[in-house]
Amino acid sequence: VKYGELALPFTFEADPTVASLVFTLPPLLVAYNFLAKSDDLQEGLPVSLPSFGGDGEGGGPSLSMDDVKKYGVAGTVAYVLTELAFWAVAFPVASTVYFNTQGHWPDLSENADRATILGFIFAGANVARLAVPLRFGAALALAPWVDENIMSKVGGSSGGDDDEDM
Q1: CA 60 to chain CA centroid, nearest Å
Q2: CB-based burial of residue 3 (10 Å sphere; 0-12 exposed, 13-18 middle, 19+ buried)?
Q3: Residues 54, 33: contact at Cβ < 8 Å?
Q4: How far is residue 41's CA from residue 31's CA, in Å, rounded to a whole number?
């Protein structure tokens, strides 16, 4: 690696495609954000814009823990399983990132390596906050399976508040 290079596998040359993305994508995302959150601006649109989570005030429903709780114990167990899956993936991903950046696998007997791995996991958990609606959606999709395959064998019932409505 020469001095001043970033050791990336691509060259830093003028590229009109990248330049157009850099200058057009942020304004388009800002315009979409304003359009999605403004009921006045959406009135003239022939289609409704999808909602990507949030507090549900932006014109679309959002997923929350209350939706998971409607499935009772099965919903809670499904959410716990999705969280366990996240944390089961977090350590191997952090270790792989460490290996790719440092050139060796982490030695957990060294404080510096442990702190670095925990830092990677902390950063990943903060990025994963963006995917909370996806985790709720995964728990909602998993809840009927948990009720049928786990709760029925354990002897528990889903016991949700709205079981008779489903």
Answers
A1: 19
A2: exposed
A3: no
A4: 11
Mean per-residue pLDDT over the chain, rounded: 75
What tokens does 106 get? 């982490």
Enter the tokens of residue 159.
């016991």
Query: How would DSSP label each residue in the chain?
Result: --TT----SS-----HHHHHHHHHHHHHHHHHHHHHH-HHHHTT-SSPPPP-SSSSTTSS----HHHHHTTHHHHHHHHHHHHHHHHHHHHHHHHHHHHHHHSS---TTSHHHHHHHHHHHHHHHHHHGGGHHHHHHHHHHHHHHHIIIIIHHHT-----TTGGG-
Note whether 5 and 12 are within 8 A (CB): no
> Residues 77-88: pLDDT tens digits?
999 998 888 888
Establish how many alpha carbons lie within 13 A of residue 156's alpha carbon, considering only the half-sphere containing its beta carbon.
16
pTM value > 0.85:
no
What is the spatial distance between Cα 133 and Cα 79, in angstroms, rounded to a whole number?
12
Token couple for 157: 């019932």
